[in-house]
Automatic annotation (TrEMBL), chains A, B, C, D:
Belongs to the glutaminase family. Coiled coil: none annotated. Homotetramer. GO terms for molecular function: glutaminase activity. It catalyses: L-glutamine + H2O = L-glutamate + NH4(+). It comes from Sphingobacterium populi. Substrate binds at S64, N117, E161, N168, Y192, Y244, V262. This is Glutaminase. The gene is glsA. Keywords: Acetylation, Hydrolase.
Length: 424, 424, 424, 424
């Protein structure tokens, strides 16, 4: 059989093609001459499998979508604290090309967030300068690594935008005036414009996004590119500032941290689940792709992807029929799913309520898919408490999901491979 | 044994008591005379179990925290569309007592969101008016129902605020001027001030929040109070507008949809997981409780609660050792965890890759904790595809987790209680 | 013969009647039902003679024009300093119904000027409260005194505006919140609305304005109503803030300190020269009478009335043929026009250049129309200097235009009635 | 004798030297190193006589004072209409280095006025470009012509400002973005910065201003440099926009159209009377010279110079003792002073009231210093009306102050040189 995902994506485009309206970006001649019929969608899973449909080989300039990835790069290189000194994380409530400086901190005036132009130009200026190449080249190499292929600059777009980058140059000089930029704004703005002119396809975009979906590890190679903290920071600003002038509306209706670009692309990330990219050049009055928004909304609805849907997976950690007394003095709790605070709390509460009188309690962790730090600590704390009540405790943990199993009171529970190993 | 959660909460307060700084709210004499040493925290689990520590019986006026619950009430009563015509969902980027009208929609000027005063007063005005009581009384009854006990107005706070509600009266008349309020603003503002004067404890707050944690169903009674859509809307505005002037910063650092009040309370909700409430009267310059923020941050870190942490629970739907050929022509896939898009995609991809040649494929759903709509549809679609490849398909589903199991092609797979039922 | 001024005014209306466009004020039903064909103009000379044409007996509510006169009243009662603490004098650059608070002075937030509603309401609140009547009654009595007849409130307009004064009530509560208003804003706003509902004709308006034209003295009675300083202050704010949103444009094109009202009136004052009033109910989008502006522009052009035209009258203080040696040792300078700094400087320069060798110098002041303080001081200083050079000096001053003629060096020049009195 | 004006100016500086406070401009190193003790004042009369005191030979860069003169130059070259399409005349209510664009006219976004940097840069860009020199050179030549000597650029100031002109470059690119600037903003801003670096003394400034005082004619040469309309426009924007952030306050207290510069100069013009310039480098927080303001206020008070003082010179056109019946059928009205609307109205009213029965009426104009257009028209209209009543009318007008004396009804009154010429 074949997985139905490609069919689903193709259906999505077919049903959407009807969506009319919107205008091509007109402030750059090259964008104004884009083919308005182009339409593409792509999706990456957590483990980096890519699905796509439509004009998925069509290249377009990445434009503002680049802001999210350059922000990630710079945080990784300089540390979050240094970047936060230069650019804030607050929604601006203004158009993307307003300078929107945050002046609440008298020590340091700074752009409100990295998703508006003033913030993105500042972020670009923070890229450590290589000796023989410009910052845009550093960006291109980074994006290429994420995309898994050599990306190139669209020279026509670059030169066209450079000639008319008056607004960005105005912003650049204003940033220089406040010493937010620390060197020649013309050079920085030109390099920033070049960053925006990197050509991508929707497949490139989802390949790039897979590192955000997968908590910083590029699934294709297994290499950690971004720290957990960096990923969370990037997703945060995509949540509140990614879609211009309509952060609240987008979060309410689509609920996916996102970023759009003026060439017609939109990306969306649901951490731990999927990354989405769409492309269609006609824009609404805010500069977002009309059909792109339509498709993203549809996917959010269809796939139940919404940041605030809740995390229902954690509802069950243990079923009653999974508590089994296998021997007179041994009771086994077969746990399943994930072990986070919510599940650990429920497990320990069950133990508290049931007041087992069996001497030995065994936790079977072989069906646990994931344990986070608080889950691990609570389980070990529970073991100490059970021992204080007079119980012995052991684990079945064939995959060493609790690697360094030692409690605060220095007790190390016995660990078995499976039920059969438990001695009589 | 006893669950360690109470000890954890007590520790949290002990470690925080050192946090100095902040000032009592001074614009109302009654708030200015609050006891600054009071400190309390409470937590509700998804199933409505309450933990608390510190001054958890101390009553204080609910103030702006009421905004979230009244918003929920009004959406439920009038429908989201009617409420959205009156109040938007965008971050305001301004202080809570700025009127912050959104004028982008020329048809209808409206407050930017329901978490600022102008929006909350408008929301209050939408409460259907009972014949013999004021709107504040409707609110009090609703809050009491959520809290599980009879809440009361703090008459001193109410009268004190009413006398000095100049700013809110100014806002009220301005809203009346734009016809956002449709009747006497003095009456509405007074009733709104009364809403803010309802007394609660942190335990009341988490009881009230359990309905938001649990997707609209009050866990204590099992009654559905709010629709799924209402809960999502409330959580959305709490995410982007709950903490004044610092939405982005809060989301980056704490990552929990929240709401604070000027009497010193803060609530935070992670849907499907926990609800948190803290209380400490001293405020920072934005009007948020200083120690409250400190404790919320600590809990977010300790418990791994962050909206953008990702949903790692879904990583495993099927282990290799859970695929078992139990008979020459029958293979069983034992699934576990939740079945959403991500997991369904992975399952169907596995089937595609493995190209089973066994005639009959059985999906064992007895360890699945939850299936959402897209998971169900993808599974059924996969079944049709497997049948098109010549397979027979059956389910083990003792708890009828796929209730109406019929595919688009009208095939109804056989359903067994357990493995033993499968005939040779 | 008859003076041509009435014919001129009648012509003006005839030629203007063609001016179309504009809308009746619609925010109050009573104003919306005004007769749009009404058209009137009136003019007062410096000495209080009134000319008028058109519907000059038609009464209309004074509305915002009242702001200028109440401001004058309050400065006169409380002193400029106390009023300046509450209301500034800066152009607001915003609509008249914006609150436009000036926050540059951290000590005292205050409305930017008295010509916007927030400023005018604050000014109204400063009227000393009489025991048995409201502030509006104090205003009515003051306006009646200026107008020379008993003015009355338009009760329908008053009640209609009071019912819909939401915007002003909003402003009032905001002013109360900042303690700019110091008592109940509802009472103040209602009284302010009543002030705006005083009925006047264009003839009443120019009668009222004659006190501003004539430097504070009511020409009809000769009574000093306002100090010189008060008049200058009122004219200053009329210059920069009288015509909403278009102060610069108005000053450039019309050049007359002015104030308009929403019922369709406009007044204009050129100090020392004329006062003008026009009435026509249809308004442009800024709230100024369309035909009123047209007529004011025409009058400014026709009559050469422009604040920045310069003061050409002073060009000649002395003609060469007016210096006459009447006796061998006596030379007479016949001066004419006014004697201010400019003229005095020119006279003294002439004396310096000419180095008269005649013993006695006589200044004939009988053709001088006016001497201001600096002119007087410079003339007396010049007399001392001439005496130091060895001259004797005398004055011909039949009307005692230099009342207390004594120099710094205690010299008192002889004063003659006419040339004939000069002894040989 | 010597005129007391130089002594007065010297006294003024002596009394002011005590004024402390203020800071040197610090944004350019060259300005920060200015000698803070320098103090100078100069004055020009209507006919171009210059008085000065203090460091009146000390050169400083003209800075923003140049804005007024360049504005005059550009209006003269292009016509007011073309300039108004690019730059407005409204007060900005914002700091001088805010861009302050006026967006009320959707057709053309433009800087609010020519006295803020964005407006001044735009005005500079309108200077017609000479083939072989930059716009700043055109300005330098124009300023030199007005000053009556060859002015030079301060190269150090120019280069220093050019290096740090980030704010102006930001403004320049923003203006370019809106197509308000139509060519390379870097070139325009550099040339504008050079304009600001022209060195002047206070004597140069008053020489330059004499053309504004004298209605466009340079008194030194008698050459008309600016039209009447241009002068009025420049004075208008100096009135409302010349002193940053404090237009209303300045107009109320000093009442002289003015412009200040960051190097410490302030100029003030009272049309038809005087031009003033002061220099002292220490600035208040708005960027105005502290001692400069002090001296300007003092001069305004001492000399009775205030735009809104009224024009008292016109009070007398005819004295009762100047109406003389010289023959049985001939009455002579000896007029004096100026003949504008106010005086003409009074003369005609007198004639109306007196109902002369003498056949012939003679107006003696030999003591009239000036007749404006409306005065002339009203006098001729009065003559027609007197003739309609049966009178004959003649003029004594030795200087042909009424050049083309013919009434609307084609009557040409007889004109005599003096009384003696009148036949019996």
């Amino acid at each position: 059989m074949n997985t139905p995902v490609p069919d689903y994506l193709a259906d999505l485009l077919r049903n959407c093609k009807a969506a009319h309206g919107g205008e091509l970006a007109d402030y750059i001649p090259e964008l104004a001459s884009a083919d308005p019929t182009k339409l593409a969608v792509a999706l990456t899973t957590l483990d980096g499998v890519i699905y796509s449909a439509g004009d998925d080989e069509h290249e377009f300039s990445i434009q503002s979508i680049s802001k999210a990835f350059t922000y990630a790069y710079v945080i990784e290189e300089l540390g979050l604290q240094r970047v936060m000194r230069k650019v804030g994380v607050e929604p601006s409530g203004e158009a993307f090309n307003e300078i929107s400086l945050d002046k609440t901190d008298e020590q340091q005036i700074k752009p409100k967030n990295p998703m508006i132009n003033s913030g993105a130009i500042t972020v670009h200026s923070l890229i450590p300068k290589a000796e023989k190449s410009c910052r845009a080249e550093t960006v291109r190499l980074f994006f290429s690594k994420l995309a898994g292929r050599e990306l190139a600059f669209d020279q026509e777009i670059f030169h066209s935008e450079k000639e008319t980058a008056f607004r960005n140059l105005s912003i650049g000089y204003s940033l220089r005036n406040f010493n937010i930029l620390e060197s020649d704004p013309v050079e920085i703005v030109e390099s920033y414009v070049k960053q925006c002119a990197i050509n991508v396809t929707v497949k490139d975009l989802v390949n790039m996004m897979s590192v955000l979906v997968n908590d910083g590890i590029l699934p294709r190679t297994g290499e950690r590119i971004l720290s957990h903290k960096t990923v969370r920071q990037v997703l945060t600003v995509m949540t509140t500032c990614g879609m211009y002038n309509a952060a609240g509306d987008w979060l309410a209706n689509v609920g996916i941290p996102a970023k759009s670009g003026v060439s017609g692309g939109i990306i969306g990330v649901l951490p731990g689940q999927v990354g989405l990219a769409v492309f269609s050049p006609k824009l609404d009055r805010y500069g977002n792709s009309v059909r792109g928004i339509d498709i993203m909304q549809q996917m959010s609805r269809d796939m139940g992807l919404h940041l605030l849907e809740g995390v229902p997976s954690s509802r069950v950690i243990i079923n009653d029929h999974d508590v089994k007394q296998i021997k007179p003095e041994v009771i086994v709790y077969k746990l399943q799913g994930v072990l986070q605070f919510t599940e650990a709390e429920r497990l320990l509460r069950k133990l508290q309520d049931e007041k087992q009188c069996n001497h030995t309690i065994v936790f079977d962790l072989s069906h646990i898919s994931l344990v986070n730090d608080v889950g691990r600590r609570m389980l070990l704390d529970g073991i100490d408490r059970l021992r204080a009540d007079g119980h012995d405790v052991a684990l079945i943990d064939p995959e060493h999901i609790i690697p360094d199993a030692k409690t605060d009171r220095d007790f190390e529970p016995k660990i078995y491979e499976d039920l059969e190993q438990i001695p009589d």
